[in-house]
Amino acid sequence: MPGLKLSPITQTEHASDVFNLTLRATDYVTLEIGHAPTHDFVDSFFTAAPPGLTTDDLLHFAVMEGPAMAGIVCIARGYEFPNDWWIGLVLLDPAFRGRGIGTATVGLIKEHATAQAVASLKLSVLEANPRAMHFWIQQGFLPHRYALATPDSDGHNRWVLTCDL
């Protein structure tokens, strides 16, 4: 998709833009956390690192279509293995969906990862989100394992998917 790019973002400079995007994409946020987005959701987007990693291991991007923030992406470098990237979130503004922006965004992530010699990309999909499962499989991701919710988790069963690069 011409003109689409991933632009690095920071919490200090972009938290309000990210919050505004989450308000536009309330459908997914509500599915994940059970209520409309809050500033805590935005804080966790920027700060929630997987076990064994720190915020220094996180990459945050805005999906930009020209001057418009069409989405956000968070990636954890080195999770679960040193040469893997874990895609923690790809959240797209509903106004931009259905035009190939999701596929183009995944293509940009794959290009960026390949340039960094990443071996594979991984992510988890909420079992309650079959459209996302279908999308990620179309992007070349394959089921890796099924993760049942635990008493300490957010209550969602998930599929972990992987894509070798």
TrEMBL record:
One of its GO terms (molecular function) is acyltransferase activity, transferring groups other than amino-acyl groups. It comes from the Bacteria. The keyword Translocase does not apply. SUPFAM superfamilies: Acyl-CoA N-acyltransferases (Nat) (SSF55729). Residues 4-164 form the N-acetyltransferase domain. Coiled coil: none annotated. Keywords: Acyltransferase, Transferase. Pfam families: Acetyltransf_1 (PF00583). CDD domains: NAT_SF. Transmembrane segments: none annotated. This is N-acetyltransferase domain-containing protein. It comes from Roseobacter cerasinus.
